[in-house]
Amino acid sequence: MSKNGAGVRPESPVALVTGASGGLGQALALELDALGCRVAVHYNSSRQGAEAVREKLTNPSVLVTGDVGSWEATQALHAQITAELGPVDVLVNNGAIRKDSLMAMQNPADWAQVIQTNLIGSFHTARASVPHMLRQRWGRVINIVSPSGIIATAGQTAYSASKAGLIGFTRTLASECGRRGVTVNALSPGFMITGMTNTLPDRVIEGMEDKAPIPRFVTVEEVARSVGLFLDQDCMTGQVISIDSGVSIT
Ligand SMILES: NC(=O)c1ccc[n+]([C@@H]2O[C@H](COP(=O)([O-])OP(=O)(O)OC[C@H]3O[C@@H](n4cnc5c(N)ncnc54)[C@H](OP(=O)(O)O)[C@@H]3O)[C@@H](O)[C@H]2O)c1
């Protein structure tokens, strides 16, 4: 064991990627597999997307499903991962939804669902996996956040509050886990064309690229490539790493 209480990184860590059926989640699953992880490929409703990415993985993997907004469903999917691969060593809270509306007109049930999925769901998965990480004195929690967590975008009070909350969660959980070799960080991608954004009207997307210091969208592969940094760095915790074309500094 090292001086800071960290244990040894497992040879082939078990990595849970929530929402691995979606755009960024698929790329994250592939990258973690390439880095030697055994990936739990999670989906909520798009089994096809999850199966497609699982077929490309080279290491042992498992397909799991469930709404992370439900504590019972989250416990069940963790039990399946533990039985088939072992407990989760690397948690990537990637699964999320967006239900945009000006707040004064927003359906309260929609607002609550965004918080339930994006924020409370991330608590559920962390609650289910972090005790094992603390016991083995090595673990990684990577929360996918968004520039919307810090930059105001009209129509996104729910999404923004969920991601800002997740940044606070990241920092505070990091402070609880550092002495036991578990790092907790956030990864903030810029605008990517995925299932979450490809239904936006052209007039919203047009001109968006030019607002960033690096005037282009980010690809899911570019964001996923950074995940190795989170695995490798024992002394990086509580941070928000932005791969966002610089939009967060505007
Ligand atoms: N796209 C962007 O421009 C952008 C920018 C910044 C941050 N992000 C963040 O990047 C992450 C990935 O999003 P994406 O762009 O790849 O969008 P996406 O293609 O829509 O993927 C979202 C994923 O979340 C899953 N999901 C939805 N409801 C869920 C629930 N109740 N429980 C568990 N998983 C659920 C979906 O699963 P099913 O399809 O199986 O239902 C899907 O796999 C999200 O955290 C998002 O906030 C995206």
From TrEMBL:
Q: Keywords on this record?
A: Oxidoreductase
Q: Which InterPro entries match?
A: KR_dom, NAD(P)-bd_dom_sf, Sc_DH/Rdtase_CS, SDR, SDR_fam
Q: Which GO terms describe its molecular function?
A: 3-oxoacyl-[acyl-carrier-protein] reductase (NADPH) activity
EC number(s) from the headed UniProt entry: 1.1.1.100
Per UniProt, residues of the Ketoreductase domain are 13-196
Please name the Pfam families in this protein's record: adh_short
Record keywords: NAD included? no
Listed name of the protein:
3-oxoacyl-[acyl-carrier protein] reductase
